[in-house]
Amino acid sequence: MKEDFLHYIWLHKKVNVTQLYTTKGEKIEILHFGHYLQTSGPDFFNSKIIIDNQQWAGNIEIHVKSSDWYLHNHQKDENYDNVILHIVWEHDIEVFRKDNSEIPVLELKECVSKTEVVKYENLIKTKTWINCENQITTIDDFIFDNWKERLFFERLERKSNEVLQLLSETKNDWEAVLFCMLAKNFGLNTNGEAFLKIAKSIPFSTIRKERISVENLEALLFGYSNLLEENYEDEYYIKIVSKWEYLQNKYALEKIFLEPLQFYKLRPDNFPTIRLAQLASLYSTIDNVFSKCINLNDKDKFYRLFSFETNNYWKDHYNFDKKNSTKRKLLSRNFIDLIIINTIIPLKFTYDYYIGKDNIESILSLIKQIQPEKNAIINKFNSFKIKANDAFDSQSLLQLKNEYCSKNKCLHCRIGLKLIKN
């Protein structure tokens, strides 16, 4: 038995309210089941009940076993002093408040129909990729579409917290926030955290001052990334090393500890050298990047904005001191799509919230212009005939899988709730 099932039973009033008694045999009448807030403290707030003709107002706590009260140390927490009813699946011990007064207990296992338990167990105990994979296509489109929108904004809200953290760290400099976010995006999953650490270590005021020279920006990024530690005779490499040493002295820059950047199993176009060179070119080519991005709402305009090229050295190099055949190192449209999904849209969402602007429809319009992501999770949903038509769908399905399906939170999911109710 899981505690979230007991929450579901109480929240949706799946009990025979005419036959409720405490473990002491006292009659319970429910005037108000309480508010399910899912915050710290008791599970249901502001409940109203009558126990043996005595009316009580307060909170309700729910556990699988009565002894969980002590396991969670509620007896030491003043937030639980106003608990008027302890609801459990199995009563195994008497429970007392801090003042040693006993808390009435309602044992649920005799009050819930076996049908409800079987429906829950049939869903939650299915040993498949997701519990409802054989039933998910039966969900009405209206319910699914509304749930996907909620999932999409849940995912955005989580990303928004990361943006606000960066905003605090950069002393409310939105241009610096975008620089950090873009750096992480350019590093992809493999080098993203390292790129973010590099970006956060370089004062953005230095980026502003040195953006007149792409070589200076490269020197800063390559220097902090520890990619200038070799004794190459490459003329351009020697030039970048010299610029890095000059900038270190000019700005009194301190090196950071950084794990070696990863090249292994990456396509050459995703080598950290190329992505850092592209990031340098972006900021040397485009001024006021934040202002430009925040005002665009069309994917084709983003494609044009990010159509810059790296400097000539990288057209025939993927690494220092190793010449290759000539190829323009442009950002692909797929890569720009990832920038829009993972950087631009979270930034827009957070900035609009920050300034008190309602721009939800614009954000939805932009995300629905982008092609869906291609990964194992989206492919698996496709195999169940749950197709992602655009990035709005794919972002919603990623949130569904990672935050609900993988955590067995079916009773917090509108799909799971609908299936159980049916």
Automatic annotation (TrEMBL):
<dbReference type="Pfam" id="PF11013">
    <property type="entry name" value="DUF2851"/>
</dbReference>
<protein>
    <submittedName>
        <fullName>DUF2851 family protein</fullName>
    </submittedName>
</protein>
<dbReference type="InterPro" id="IPR021272">
    <property type="entry name" value="DUF2851"/>
</dbReference>
